[in-house]
From TrEMBL:
Domain of life where this protein originates: Eukaryota
Pfam family, one: Pro-kuma_activ
Chain ranges of the Peptidase S53 activation domain: 5-66
Lineage: Eukaryota, Fungi, Dikarya, Basidiomycota, Ustilaginomycotina
Annotated InterPro entries: S53_propep
Protein name (record): Peptidase S53 activation domain-containing protein
Parts forming coiled coils: none
GO MF terms, alphabetically ordered: serine-type peptidase activity
Length: 103
């Protein structure tokens, strides 16, 4: 079933048994092992969905992603605050607000 949804509601995670994923995605699933880490992953070379469903989907992943998994780590410990007064909405606005200089 539906396991998670992104805050923007444009991405969601669904957990289903492999047999159900194979059925829903018309995919030939296989279990693959990454040589370096020994991690196992269920993957498929390709998948397909009915046309009326494909119009609503951009990507089903990481089903067809065969690259080795990487550890996710944050570099926040080495970061420093540039300004307490920056407005996130302004930072991501489409129009140019002005030049931001950083020493």
């Amino acid at each position: 079933g539906l396991a998670a949804r992104s805050p923007s509601k444009d991405t969601f995670t669904v957990h289903v048994p492999a047999w159900k994923a194979r059925e829903l995605l018309n995919a030939d699933l296989g279990v693959y092992e990454y040589k370096r880490s020994g991690a196992l992953a269920i993957r498929a070379a390709e998948y397909s969905v009915p046309e009326h469903v494909s119009e609503l989907l951009d990507y089903v992943g990481p089903l067809t992603l065969f690259t080795a998994p990487r550890a996710h780590r944050s570099d926040i410990a080495g970061a420093h605050v540039l300004s307490e007064k920056l407005d996130n909405a302004a930072l991501f606005a489409k129009e140019k607000i002005g030049d931001l200089s950083v020493d």
